[in-house]
């Protein structure tokens, strides 16, 4: 009879149920911890990407050139020969290279009138306010001169519309569109 009670006690599995419950509970805690770690990592990653996007947008707008005043056109009474505009940095902008003779990292000005397009017109730079370098810095004012006779195909006459795009190496570009008045008898014409 002693052997039967020992055999019965080995078959009694009441203690194992508590151990199984503890194992299941621990596995739930481990799975929840891993899931929360994954969710936190994804949140940190996405907020980091959002911050990079905001900083890239700020860098894009910080180098923007802004027109100050009007655009003056010089006429030989049959066609427009030169354009002159004054520029400064947009509020909070970072310096922009305006060296017309640089081969890299420079501002490019393009011209288009619907029939003729020049993606890199020749321009000159005159500093009005600021130091004498060719970098447009906060608080400086420069005059940009564009000689339209450099490209023999450009022939701007009365009642024609043209478009200039000023493209700095970084930052947003400035689009300027003007229409020549019907009379270009004056030597200097204000194209506001």
Concise account of the structure shown:
With 192 residues, the protein is an alpha+beta fold. The chain has two domains: 2-61; 65-190, Immunoglobulin-like (Sandwich), CATH 2.60.40.
Note down, in words, how this protein is organized:
- By secondary structure, the chain is of the alpha+beta class.
- It has two domains: 2-61; 65-190, Immunoglobulin-like (Sandwich).
- The protein is built from two helices and eleven strands.
- It starts with a helix and ends with a strand.
Write the layout of secondary structure elements.
Blueprint: H1 2-11, H2 14-62, E1 65-75, E2 80-89, E3 96-97, E4 108-112, E5 117-118, E6 123-129, E7 135-136, E8 141-147, E9 161-167, E10 174-179, E11 188-190
Antiparallel strand pairs: 1-2, 1-11, 2-8, 3-7, 4-5, 4-9, 6-8, 9-10
Tell me about the biggest sheet?
A: 5 strands, antiparallel
Tell me the CATH topology of the largest domain: Immunoglobulin-like
Mean pLDDT: 83
Q: Strands of the largest sheet, in order across it?
A: 6-8-2-1-11
The total beta strand count reads: 11
> Number of helical runs?
2
- CATH architecture assignment of the largest domain: Sandwich
Which percent band covers the strand fraction?
25-35%
Task: Specify Rg, calculated over alpha carbons.
Answer: 36 Å
What is the distance, rounded to the nearest whole angstrom, between the alpha carbons of the first and last residues?
116 Å
Name of the top-level CATH class of the largest domain: Mainly Beta
Report the uncertain regions: none
User: Structural class, judged by helices and strands?
Assistant: alpha+beta
Order of helices and strands: HHEEEEEEEEEEE
Helix fraction bin: 25-40%
Count of distinct structural domains? 2
